[in-house]
Amino acid sequence: MSDRNDGHEELRKAVRAFLKNASPSSEVRRLMATAEGYDPEVWRRLADELGLVGLIVPERFGGAGAGAAELAVVMAEMGRTLLCSPYLSSAVLAPAVLLESGDEAACAALLPGIADGSALATLAVAEDNADIRDFDAIRTTARADGDRHLLHGTKERVSDGCTAGLLLTVARTDKGLSLFAAEPEGAEREPLPVLDPTRKLARVGFDGTPARLIGAEGAAAAVLGRALDLGTVALAAEQTGGAERCLELSVEYAKTREQFGRPIGAFQAIKHKCAELLHEVESAKAAAQDAARLWSDPTTGEQGLAASVAGAYCSEAYVHAAAETIQIHGGIGFTWEHDAHLYLRRARSSALLLGSTSWHLERVAEDIGLVPTA
């Protein structure tokens, strides 16, 4: 094994050991019932003790300067335990969109606080019932007002939108889609009912909310696309961690639960289910790892394609693994007391979070020439 892989394994062990104590099932259930949805002390330790909050933030902005491969390792471990935290929004999407903007002044001003965990940030994109990748559906506007802009519009399904202290928002100007940084004090925030209570979503309304332009005006579409692709790579890794844990729960139960005097794992139907899950989980891990690897090599030109392959496959694999886990557990799997349904809720919610499976599959089809591009 290479030194790099050795380093990844050490990182995996450290994160798993930390989350074993910081995110047991009992704590997940406690936090998902709170309005904030996360433990500030755990968040502080993730930042200070492990340096994970600033993982992908360059060292010059106070981060660790790690890449997508390391991020995938961390996200997979968080997915295994259903960690309740604003990690995807504040430690992945927000830094990604700021770095992609190329705005050095904004990065210098905002990234250090994000990296050390003192500032929570999120990305506000989706509107109405449209997919987050449907940029044509964005109707929020930004009107110049001196050295600032005023935002008007409503964003839906904003991850951690009620707790973030910085709202990185995409809005239209006369020059096209642009990225803005808005303070939450000037916005109306409302928590949304969610299928997955371990990940909080909000509706954020802007009515003349002051904001400052990030990057070049009219350049947000490409910036946003790249940031969402990195988010998809990270989310795919999280999905593989959750799917792998579902497989483990299923195998453990099949070995210990007895019917007709023998473990249910001895029955062919259960064997087939577990074997199929193993194949899907390993394939999902390969897709996620390949996407993370390609992200570090922009010369291939396949980063977007790999992100969508992982996004589509890992979403489907996780949903299937979670659903089969409930089936293998039988009656107990359907109860609130068992964790299987928490994984299914996370799986179904995640499958729509950063682009639906159909969106990713259509993109893959276009990239490989199965259908003409628009």
Automatic annotation (TrEMBL):
GO terms for molecular function: acyl-CoA dehydrogenase activity; flavin adenine dinucleotide binding. Keywords: FAD, Flavoprotein, Oxidoreductase. Its cofactor is FAD. Transmembrane segments: none annotated. Signal peptide: none annotated. Residues 225-368 form the Acyl-CoA dehydrogenase/oxidase C-terminal domain. InterPro entries: Acyl-CoA_Oxase/DH_mid-dom_sf, AcylCo_DH-like_C, AcylCo_DH/oxidase_C, AcylCoA_DH/ox_N, AcylCoA_DH/ox_N_sf, AcylCoA_DH/oxidase_NM_dom_sf. Residues 6-117 form the Acyl-CoA dehydrogenase/oxidase N-terminal domain. It holds the Pfam family Acyl-CoA_dh_N. Belongs to the acyl-CoA dehydrogenase family. This is Acyl-CoA dehydrogenase domain-containingprotein. It comes from Streptomyces iranensis.
